[in-house]
């Protein structure tokens, strides 16, 4: 599933379609495709993992789910696009994604302060929301789109490794400085993700995600599906500290 920085890349790649009218529409989507014909793109926007194509009276929301992808100006070798939009200066083909019309203005539907890639990202708001949910596990917090729109499994694993926090830590048990660091590093890593992805070297920089050995301790990393989200976590039992009570146990862990 593309994470926020990948949607920013898509937004940048499709910027040349802004101001262009839709000349042809096709694809296997059951949307009323005729609605798009002749509409002029007013903006290409990203919100977290969602890609938004804004027209005058409505918008098209694209969510790439688990296996979605896109091509610009060329078709994939196999498969039918969910939706193809042809403009005078090129074409956008969307595959295996969810597409939906939004009739309300985007500013009403979305709060960009929650989008980790946004110019108006608000770290204080994120900390406030985290403090309101003290029992939330760190591994779930970093996937929660209400807290960190755009953060996904890669960002989760890399940020927790960087800040040396065990994925099963509870948010409420993190010292204030560690909570601040967590929020800060989601933003910092997301922009590094963007730069590295553009340079085709994202994976080269992974320290924990999909790795087998801790680069700090030189011992095997643990892989497990953790938390309510049940997504793959990669972490080091030695250098990533577990803050807070152990959920599986009746007893409380010692106060740190
Ligand atoms: Zn380690």
Please tell me about this protein's structure.
This protein has 256 residues and is an alpha+beta fold. The chain folds into two domains: 4-109, Alpha-Beta Barrel (N-terminal domain of MutM-like DNA repair proteins), CATH 3.20.190; 119-254, Helicase, Ruva Protein, domain 3 (Orthogonal Bundle). 23% of the residues lie in helices and 19% in strands. The chain has six helices and ten strands; from the N terminus they run H-E-E-E-E-E-E-E-E-H-H-H-H-H-E-E. The protein has helices at 4-13, 106-109, 123-131, 138-141, 153-162, 176-198; strands at 24-26, 43-47, 50-54, 59-63, 69-72, 83-87, 90-95, 98-102, 222-226, 231-235. The chain has a four-stranded antiparallel beta sheet, with no helix packed on it. A four-stranded antiparallel beta sheet has the order 2-3-4-8, with helices on one face. It has a two-stranded antiparallel sheet with strand order 9-10. The protein starts with a helix and ends in a 21-residue tail after the last strand. Bound molecules: zinc ion.
